[in-house]
Amino acid sequence: MSSKRTALATLLGLGALALFADPVLAQGYDSTTEELIRSLNNQLLYMAIPITVLVEGILIYTVWKYRNNDEPKPTKENRRLEISWTIATAIVLLVVGYASYGVMANEYVSTSQTEFDTQNEDVVDVEVVGVKYLWEFNYEGENVSNQGTLVIPNDTDVRLHVTSEDWIHALHVPEMGLKQDAMPGQTNTIVTHPTDEDNYTLYCAEYCGVGHSEMLGEVEVVSQEEYDEWLDDQRNGSD
Question: What is the arithmetic mean of pLDDT over 145-151?
Fold first, then answer.
């Protein structure tokens, strides 16, 4: 009996650890994109833990109960049991599919949607160009270009049009939940909405040659006032 209790306590402990580890580490979100992705992850985790505990609990109980059975009998068909777990599995898959679709089809997550509220004048459009081995940022309508550092305003929709000048790269800002391929002759658009003023490291997530490990950049999320001042400084500096 003590062994069974120990096994059950271990399962419950591991489940609780997995359940609370992510929210403790998260300490808030840096963009709407990250929030959507992490929220989906948490929802799936909440579903997976009780299922895991149930299945593993039954397995451990069965192994323990029949550990000394030297003459096992063949299993018999149990139609009710088979129908029950088939229905339960279908329900789980439907719930997971519904939750996943709600996030993956969202305009802040979907990588296939290139149109995003084009009538919204507050959207900041930036062309992101991968060039071995650096990143170039061209601010559409502002006559401003920059290398290495992407400066964007906080609490504003930002649309990144990602492409490449030579071969395949990949823009990746893990802390903001952003990732998109940069391909020659093709533009892929991602949309996000920063929610925290901070600095983040931008990586190339696609091996692109000998300088791949050095193809780093920085994302600076600043207030709207600082962003406007930065644009003015860039324009004045380029004259």
Answer: 94
What is the Cα–Cα distance from 197 to 155, expressed in whole angstroms?
Answer: 9
- The backbone region for 177, taken as left when phi is positive above 0, alpha when psi lies in -120 to 50, beta otherwise, is left
- What would the two tokens of residue 121 be? 């004048």
Pairing outcome for strands 217-222 and 199-204: antiparallel
Looking from the CA of 205 toward its CB, the CA atoms found within 13 Å total: 13
In this structure, the strands spanning 149-153 and 217-222 are: parallel
First-last CA distance in the chain? 81
For residue 113, pLDDT over 50 is answered with no
Q: How much is the pTM?
A: 0.71
Asked if 137 contacts 160 with a C-beta cutoff of 8 angstroms, the reply is no
Residue owning tokens 């550092």: 149
DSSP at 73 = P
Could you read off the pLDDT of 165-210 as tens digits, one per residue?
998 999 999 999 899 999 999 999 999 999 999 999 999 999 999 9
The residue behind tokens 């580890």 is 21
The residue behind tokens 């323990």 is 64
Distance CA 130, CA 206 (A): 11
Q: Are strands 124-131 and 158-164 parallel, antiparallel or unpaired?
A: parallel
Helices (H), the chain: 2-26, 32-65, 79-104, 224-238
